[in-house]
Amino acid sequence: MSKMKRKIVISVFLCFFIFANSFVAYGTQYFTDVNTDHWAKDFIEKLTVLGIVKGFDDATFRPNDPVSKTASISMIYQMLNKAGKTKNATDLVDKHKKTLESTGIHTYALWAEPAIAYALEKSIVHEDELKVFFKEGKNVNARRLDVAVFLAKAIAESDIANGSIVVLPFTDADFIPHAAGKYVAYLIEKGIINKNGDYMGRFNPNNAISRAEICTMIAKAYDFISKNDNTGNIAPIPDPNPGSVVVTPKDEIKDGSITYIDSSTKTILVKLTNGKTELFQINDDIEISLNGNKGTFSALQVNQEVMLTLKEGTKLAKINIKSFVPNMEATLNAVVPNTGFTLVVVREKTTNAVKSLKATGTTKVELNGLPASLDQLKLGDILKLQVDGQDILSIAAVSKIKTYQGILESEISSMENPVLKMKINNEVKEFPIDQNAKVTKNGYTRWLKDLKRLDAVTITTEYDKVIEIKANSVFSKVTGKIISLTMAKPSSILKVLVNSEEKTFTVGNNVSVTINNSSKSLYDLRVDQLVELELENEEVIEIEARDDLKKKQISGIISSIHTSSKTIKILYYNPTTNTAERKSIVYNYDTKITSTRAQTAIGVGALKVNDQIIVIGEELDDTFVAEKILLID
């Protein structure tokens, strides 16, 4: 080959080599499912340039797919490596070999051993945590909270302080364990987590983290540690292909919230996450987007979280609206499907005017905090909308009619402005009660004053005000021997020995008392009497007592039933001989048989071998004559 031809070939090769690497460095490796309006596009491309993430063979990135715990640790490790923070990470695999093998990392994720070993060494993850990285040999998905804790531990220059009180700004902060709160707070402080959460103000700690979400967090973490290296200088982006020509990306991303809008001059004031406030002119060529929908200047609202893209670091080119700030509150009047869009007719709250708006397939809809479709909305639902002209970008709806189930926390104290307190999933909630609310209890019409603490209730609300209450008492029976009775108002205290255990019960003043089948009062009860208590919720409403000292109580397991001779044989423990013995129980037509579940009289046919029973009666020779049999079921 001639020297001239060789020079031409080399020149062409160098041009291609430089172009190829410039292509990567500018972040132009686009994925078919990450369009220009995708909220995480810049973060995904940044990590692609750095070589921390990559797409799939079909040219997709699959931004909504979950990320495993193993992969999340690996991505954090790769980020630290690119930032030059893992210089002393050699030989850690051998050091932690035993843990890697015992926790399944060596078996199921051999590729991740260096990352996991580094995480163990730096206390990013504990050995016990690794035990739940896999389930039946399959990777377990990482939650948003998991990644927040891993990432905070990885980038914190020193241990995050313990003992301080952390108040998180999210509406679902109660679902973030106290021990993890400090790590979330640290990432908020460093601008890695948005303090405003999603459009409902939630962090969603237990949601599986998506590929797009983890890219956003890791890209921001990379920027943070790169700008805070040991020299105090901003660290350059590492060359993804050493020896090649790298062109520094010209676009700059800035996050912040809109604090002021001047519609007349089309300018906005944005407070950036670094604490600075900047003024931006919104020209017609600037792209504005929300949820992938293109918007106009009118879509911008004060308090919105936005991501700004600046060309060459100065010229505003794109505004991606990240948080939902409604610019209209209304009541739903109708949803009318049309070709290409859906007509949503609403009555605006502030003006009471009826308006017709357009929703499309890209309109984001949530109902009571959960993803929904337009056909799930009902007449009268309360809507918070973000609109751009006549187009609806997002809808957050709250149902007009809701139903809740739970346990009544307390009786209704005030009848003038009644409030119902009920426990729902271990959380106490309060609801005002409409004056015309319908009340039923145990299937019968009742008054609010008839509701008792611990009633099982189902309530129906209209605009969060109770319009119907369906309550049911929880009935149960207890058998034992009286230890003590303390008379008091409004209720007395009864202590009973039940199966060798002392239990305390509240006795209402309207309690029904019978002794030896005769009607009596509380004052007639005596210590050591055998009693059967009927309880409504936790209050004693009926006491049936025996004071005949000849009456005995025996408890055992049925071994056989002989209806022809009206005999039941049981196996019971005899404390005198300290052995298990058999006893014949004789019953007759006067024997009362009940069960703890049925709460009503049952026949002997309901008893079965191996059932546990308590028998009260008289001992006659080798048999026991039963007056009462209680089936423990």
From TrEMBL:
Q: Which gene encodes it?
A: sap_1
Give yes or no: UniProt keyword Signal.
yes
Q: What is this protein called?
A: S-layer protein sap
The residues forming the signal peptide are 1-25
Where the record annotates domain SLH, the positions are 27-90, 167-232
- PROSITE patterns xrefs: SLH (PS51272)
InterPro entries cross-referenced by the UniProt entry: Cell_Envelope_Struct_Comp (IPR051465), SLH_dom (IPR001119)
* Key words, A-Z: Repeat, Signal
Does Secreted appear among the keywords?
Answer: no
